[in-house]
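re: that complex we talked abt at group meeting.

here r the seqs, copy pasted straight from the sheet so there may be weird spacing, ignore it
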Amino acid sequence: MSEVLVKPLRVIRSRGYVWAAAAVLLLAFPFYLDRFWLQAGLFAMAAAIGAIGINLLTGATGQLSMGHAFFLAVGAYGYCVFAADGGDGLTGLGLPTWLAAVLAVLVAGVAGGLFSPISGRLGGAYLGIATLALVFIGQHVMFNAHDLTGGANGRDVPPLSLFGLTFDDRELLVAAVPFGSAEKLWYAGLVLLLAGALFARGVLRGRPGRAMNAIRDHSVAAGVLGVPVARHRAAVFVLSSMYAGLAGVLLALIFQRTVPDYFGITLSLEYLAMIVIGGLGSVSGAVAGAVFVSLLPQLLTRYSDALPLVSAPGTGGIAPGEASRYLYGAAVVLVVLFLPGGLVSTAARRRVRTDPGEER
Amino acid sequence: MSTFAEVLLNGVSLGSVYALIALGFVVVFRATEVVNFAHASLLLAGGYITATLHDDIGFWPALLAGIAGAALVGAAVEFLVIRRYRGNDHSVLAIVTIGVDILLTTELTRRIGTDVIPLGDPWGDAVLKIGPVSIAHTRIAAFVAAALLITAFLLAFRYTSWGVAMRAAAESGETAALMGVRLGRVSLGAWAVAGGLAAVAALFLTVFPTPGLERATSLAALKAFPAAILGGLDSTTGALVGGLLVGITESLATGYQSDLTFLGRGLGDLAPYLVMVAILLIRPAGLFGTKELARV
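got the structure back, here u go
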């Protein structure tokens, strides 16, 4: 058995090369790609952070949530409220922006905690229906609490500034490449995503992860083995809300303006689609799915002229947004039916075939 | 007082429509243990078929076509997707129905576009006056149709062999299969019935005072989810009570909106969800749902 657990040095080394190459590429992108691609990549990063959160909840613990959009909104608007200086007539506390970002994430966590009497007691799909309420309550508040949210028009997002560096569009030359907000945010996004992914991996591989999987597979058995089921369900819900809050902050910084329409039920469904397509219950699955689902509409928009069937919005054909919804809707169904485990499972399976010593 | 009576009557009528939708939802859940998130899109499909056909073939044939069409779509979803799933994790199946919902809703909303399509119903905007209370014909028709359908369904559920088979399958699938109940057929039937009921509900969600079928109709249909869960997902009685409760609350919140302005506009759309959260806080299994009992 022991040889199953020890990875051959060759595997570790080759994986190290892949990681190093990926890191170099990701770090170099802002110097070579134009704004469109950076923006698309940033969306994917924000989505990946949110998807990791919902994968902890839905994938690893088996608790369906349709309310993820609500917590994204809490993060986005929370950041605006804490960071804005109140110059536009809306409530703003004028805190330092980094503190505002941290507080926004905490507020999202508190919002998740307030839902814990329900999130701790309901299991699986029941919770999915209950969390529908959050999306609609969120929409109601966003449209009506004008002082906080700016109503239907939304509100501007103050740029993040950290250690004297402001992530706005004032251009900064780095190695003869002008750095606007997209380039600067790119690195912030990378750091946040890496931290989020490592933390989630730690959670999944440690005691809490075992407990979460046990709850998903058989909550009664988990309870008998001494796992406090309700407390774990509630705690994972809080953690997942905080990930969503962080993703919300990042999205707000990318958009530079938050509007309530974005945080509707469709967004929640998108996040569920991401984790199913990528792979339930793993960090890499969440990231893969997030990249797939969030890049798809961007790619289709960019190349709508060259693609058959897809046409620009408003011309009567299938708009890029719709085309991408067809694609990921179909992907969800097909992946569950034919590829249980998602996109990352194919990669894992190939690894197992070449290295029988590899664990999963 | 007359406002109150009107609001209450409208609420009961609206609630009976929600009960129809919730009933279909509960039937699918009992027969296949799948939480069917595609239910709203089945409703949209039924409504769309009725709306496009009524000009050519008249209202009643169009309604029948809508019911048949939605039943067919439901059955197709069961046959092509639900039946092909080989795992046994029901919350994954719930996510599959979300995928189906994304597909169907995208297609239907693309076809509907920004239009508001009337369904060509014979009631129009006629209003019945009883003393000071006035109520639209469509609301009366909705209540009568829902009451008839629900009664017929409950009788069938209790006395026909189809109903017995379905209840047996819900009780214990394996035992039912060993007794000769064809589970595939039962679940196919459940999905078809759910689709048909949803198509009828689509009609009454889009007639007067609502202008017609539009994109947002699927959002209105979503309100039947709280109705189903606050009654208890596995209880047909619960679906009825939940539907009525949701309908009446929504109607009250809309009717007395002017007294509730401090809570913001559009409170009626939110009311069903608030009721659901309030009830789930007290009774996590819903009002009539069976508490999950586990024997170890």
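couple things i noticed - Residues 2-32 of chain B form the longest helix (31 residues). The two ends of chain B are 55 Å apart (CA to CA).
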